[in-house]
Design a protein that fits this description.
single chain, 272 residues, alpha/beta, 3 domains, seven-stranded mixed β-barrel, elongated
Length: 272
């Protein structure tokens, strides 16, 4: 009987210890780690997150990650459950992002404050674990597109290799022709240099001829200008001569006798 009583005491002690451990774990998970639990559904990888990862709110640690699992309906999504202190003002428009911890290693969850006029995100009977919306990850599109870009690059390289293989003979012939032309140009280096010198000399001669033509044109322009001035003076003299002739003709037409014999003879003849 005494042995049986000892077994009962030991069994009761073990059960009591297990109950205490269970209560401690429950307290850590639901009280010490935060009074409220939220769920976040990420549409991309959550690499670096582990159970116990830091949960921050405006840069301040307010809780930790409790668990995470794949979405049973869409394996591309990951459901992360976090616990935060019950005085954390998480609102309906708050957003959750995965943030690298830098030199400390790993990743954590960062929650934005949201707008002050947005209602607080609280649990209900129908939704005991509210869902915080995940913000679009800035680098997700780039990393998702990387495999497609690599496949495209590989396909391009394969097509380039096939094109070179199909035209290997033509490419070899072209390279040979280029080499021959280069060799010929090297052998004719002296002639090419002399041709360049002749070209420069011809350009200098052309420049001198152009300068002379410009000078002759300037002299011709001065002579032409002087000739125009002389012509203008001659025209002015001709206009004055024409005006004088016009006055003479008018006097002659008005009184030819007076114009030819003078003004006294007609009067004298009349008095007689």
């Amino acid at each position: 009987m005494e042995t049986r009583a000892n077994y009962l005491m030991i069994g009761g002690f073990i059960l009591g210890a297990l109950a205490l451990i269970f209560m401690f774990v429950f307290w850590v998970a639901n009280i010490a780690g935060g009074g409220n639990r939220y769920e976040i559904v990420f549409d991309s990888s959550v690499a670096g997150l582990t159970t116990g990862s830091r949960v921050g709110f405006n840069g301040i640690k307010v809780g930790e990650v409790q668990s995470f699992a794949l979405d049973p309906q869409d394996a591309r999504k990951v459901r992360v459950v976090i616990s935060v202190s019950d005085n954390t003002p998480i609102r309906e428009d708050s957003l959750a992002t995965i943030k690298s911890m830098g030199l400390a290693g790993g990743s954590g969850v960062e929650i934005s404050a949201g707008s002050p006029d947005s209602p607080l995100l609280v649990a209900t009977d129908d939704n005991p674990i509210p869902t915080i919306e995940a913000a679009p990850m800035a680098g997700a599109g780039i990393f998702d597109a990387a495999p497609a870009a690599l496949n495209t690059a590989n396909a391009f390289i394969k097509r380039l290799d096939a094109l070179i293989a199909a035209n290997e003979q033509q490419i070899t012939s072209t390279m040979k022709n280029v080499e021959e032309v280069t060799t010929m140009l090297e052998s004719q280096n002296d002639e090419i240099e002399q041709a360049i010198i002749d070209f420069r000399s011809g350009a200098e001669d052309f420049r001198q001829i152009t300068a002379k033509l410009d000078k002759n044109l300037d002299e011709l322009s001065l002579e032409a200008k002087k000739g125009m001035q002389d012509f203008s003076a001659a025209m002015q003299q001709a206009r004055r001569t024409a005006a004088t002739m016009d006055r003479v003709l008018r006097k002659f037409e008005a009184n030819p006798a007076s114009f030819l014999f003078g003004g006294s003879r007609p009067g004298t003849a009349q008095r007689r």
